Amino acid sequence: MARYALFPGCVMSTEQYGYEVSLKTVLPVLGVEIVDLEGFSCCGEPLKSINQMLTLTLSARNIAICEKEGLDILAPCPLCHLALSETKRILDNDPKMRERAASSLANEELKYRGTSKIYHIIDLLHDIIGLEAVKEKVVRPLSGLNFATHYGCHLIRPSEMGRPVDSENPQKMERILEVLGAGSAHYPEKPDCCGGPLLPVHPETSLTKTGQKLKAVQDQGFSGMSLCCPWCHKMFDSKQKKAGETVGAKLNVPVLYITQLVGLAFGIDPGKLGLELNLSPVDRILGGQEEAGA
């Protein structure tokens, strides 16, 4: 089996357990072993505006832990993926910054070598495992369901960083949904932010953005929303009721991680995909899948 070190990040580890549960259930079916390593810290990205060197050092340390074990990295959180990827880009191309980071890592007998590759779940499924391999495992196609995709800001931007999907027209999640048997039509609000970054300082503005996007998805008749970011899931799933109140709409949109949808198409019991942890009405998706399979 291919082996990857899982870098879970802060949000998935503390409140978005359904993401971790579902990817740890789905990936072994596709021949991937997920390895949990000890000693990780925050990626440092939330601190970047205060101390950029601290962010770089924290990410370099996390990468070095994986490199010590000879493992590539799976970072399912787009924010963490961006921090790790940017750090790798800087250290691989700037000897002086690499030397500065090395002095901090030496205190723990760690060394950044630049050998580990960094993947997100979308490019792991689409590019590394491959669509055909995913399609071969489908036993309960998501027929008759049409999902609005949401990638999140940090998975597509900044484009000069070489993000996992195209910044102008991201399509990898759509192609994954297609091999699962589901539809995924375009909608104008697709690139809009979830509002999450504004929540601590401007909660009403944040929830307005969340509610506006959910209302657009609901008004355009989608079966639900598919996403791949724990921060975004927090906004669209657990904050959905409050977001609806903020924009004056009654929202009823099922919100699922792409890994949960992959698991359902693979015929995996919903209880093993963390679906009971979703706060949006995901039962509508389960009911629709049962009708399609009847």
What is the topological layout?
Elements: E1 2-6, H1 9-14, H2 17-26, E2 32-35, H3 52-68, E3 72-74, H4 78-93, H5 95-105, E4 118-119, H6 121-136, E5 147-150, H7 153-156, H8 172-179, H9 203-219, E6 224-227, H10 230-238, H11 240-247, E7 255-257, H12 258-265, H13 283-293
Parallel strand pairs: 1-2, 1-3, 3-4, 5-6, 6-7
Helix pairs in contact: 2-12, 3-4, 4-5, 6-8, 9-11
Structure description:
- The chain is built from 13 helices and 7 strands.
- The model has no long low-confidence stretch (mean pLDDT 95).
- It has 2 domains: 2-119, Glutathione S-transferase Yfyf (Class Pi), Chain A, domain 2; 136-293, 3-Layer(aba) Sandwich (Rossmann fold), CATH 3.40.50.11810.
- The chain has helices at 9-14, 17-26, 52-68, 78-93, 95-105, 121-136, 153-156, 172-179, 203-219, 230-238, 240-247, 258-265, 283-293, and strands at residues 2-6, 32-35, 72-74, 118-119, 147-150, 224-227, 255-257.
- With 294 residues, the chain is α/β, with parallel strands linked by helices.
- The strands form 2 sheets. Strands 2-1-3-4 form a 4-stranded parallel β-sheet. Strands 5-6-7 form a 3-stranded parallel β-sheet, with helices on both faces.
- It is globular and about 55 Å long.
Highest-level CATH class of the largest domain:
Alpha Beta
> Average pLDDT across residues?
95
Residues in helices, as a percent range: 40-55%
Q: What's the order of the H and E elements?
A: EHHEHEHHEHEHHHEHHEHH
| Distance linking N and C termini | 35 Å
What fraction strand? Answer: 5-15%
Biggest sheet descriptor: 4 strands, parallel
Task: Give me the number of helical elements.
Answer: 13
User: Can you count the beta strands?
Assistant: 7
- According to CATH, what is the topology of the largest domain? Rossmann fold
Structural class determined from secondary elements: alpha/beta
